[in-house]
Amino acid sequence: MSNSYLRYICDCAREGMLIIPTDTDLPLTLYTVFSSSVVLPPAGLPVLVDDIWQIGTWGRETYNRPGRALDRVVEATAKRLAELGLTKAQIGLVGDATSAPYWAGLAESLPGSRFEKAQGIVDRMQRRRSKAEQAVVRAAAQLACIGMQAAYHVIRPGVTDHEIYAAFTFAQMARGGETGKATRSGSTPTAPTAASPTAMWCDRER
């Protein structure tokens, strides 16, 4: 699954592969990779998932470390599906274009299984937002506005980009938001001129 689908289904803020068995007595299993979130405060554990595995860190594609995270995720997922007796089964796939390498790896690892795209199930659920979902979107927009107001308040000659970013992050996280992103904002000659602040609402206890 790509992050957008994982975020919607189980509120997972990382990339990874989520196995959802059709048997209700079997747990959901999530295989993911970690990055700086091991050191920095994570967005929180995924909901509904009891079996969570961080099977490694990002490899050469991101941090120039040995190995590829994609291979590790595919290997762990294929092993789990085999343990469930699904080496010859019909498996639904939920994801977008970024998930294609994972699906290709699974198809190669489990040649006896049949894979069908199933993201339409989730897409239909997202066409009409519930009242609770609408409230979350409004809260996230408000947090982004609060963060930008805090950034505007501290901007003056001599203030560094880091100090501006700190003001933005503190303002929205102190009010219940998750880790903010304003990394495309900059005021130095080599920094990007565009800004894309984002904020995410979280009502879970830390």
From TrEMBL:
InterPro entries: Creatin/AminoP/Spt16_N, Creatinase/aminopeptidase-like. It comes from the Bacteria. Residues 178-206 are annotated as: Disordered. Keywords: Coiled coil. Residues 182-199 have a biased composition (Low complexity). Residues 115-142 form a coiled coil. This is Uncharacterized protein. It comes from Tropicibacter naphthalenivorans.
